[in-house]
Amino acid sequence: MSEVFQNVSPNWYSLTMLLAIILSAYYWIKMSRDDGRLPLVYICALGCAFLGAKVAYLISEGWLHTGDDRWLHWLAGKSITGALLGGYIGVELFKKLLGYQRITGDRFALIVPFSIILGRLGCLIQGCCAGVSCVLPGGLDRWPAVPVEIAFNVCAILVFAYMRHRKWQTYQHFHLYLIGYGLFRFLHEFMRATPKPFAGLSGYQLIALVIAIVGLIAYCRRKRMLLATI
Hints:
GO molecular function, one term: phosphatidylglycerol-prolipoprotein diacylglyceryl transferase activity
Keywords: Cell membrane, Membrane, Transferase, Transmembrane, Transmembrane helix
Number of helices: 8
Organism: Oceaniferula spumae
Distance between the termini: 44 Å
Number of strands: 0
Protein name: Diacylglyceryl transferase
Oligomer: single chain
Largest sheet: none
GO cellular component, one term: plasma membrane
């Protein structure tokens, strides 16, 4: 997944990413009225998300850039899949370190896809993260990778809002999102114009599989925990 943006002014991706950070910060601050540990969890999770975004990019395609402009690629490159995985690990890790045991995930099944939509709108405006060349109705010569991912996340918001309203799979929504998004990104990556140096797979596909597996493991653990309380 190419996430390197250059020769663009203003940088819409950075602006939409900043908006997503502000939105998530507002949610955490709102939750932290009852517990002062939550702002610290958020700050640590945000740091893990940025670290994950960078590491995922470097593993997936950053190492392929060896020219004189490699530093520009290495500094600017980032990955939504890495940010999602890093942020989730950061939240769970620092909640455990701080002894915070309340479940926070269900609302994030709404706010995370919304944040990803904001980021992808930045991609759409900047014209990055293109799909593979193909022939489509309407004269399109490339797969509309960014609009398809936006559509997936819009559907995710609608589905989880309905599940929240009906109280279906309570406390499992974010785990289900991790599973669904991970599988979606693994399959959708075949239609994206990204380097695929790992036996025909991209690094982002491997990370997407990890996201889905982590979500499945977390779902099963939460299910056992909930059954034990009945």
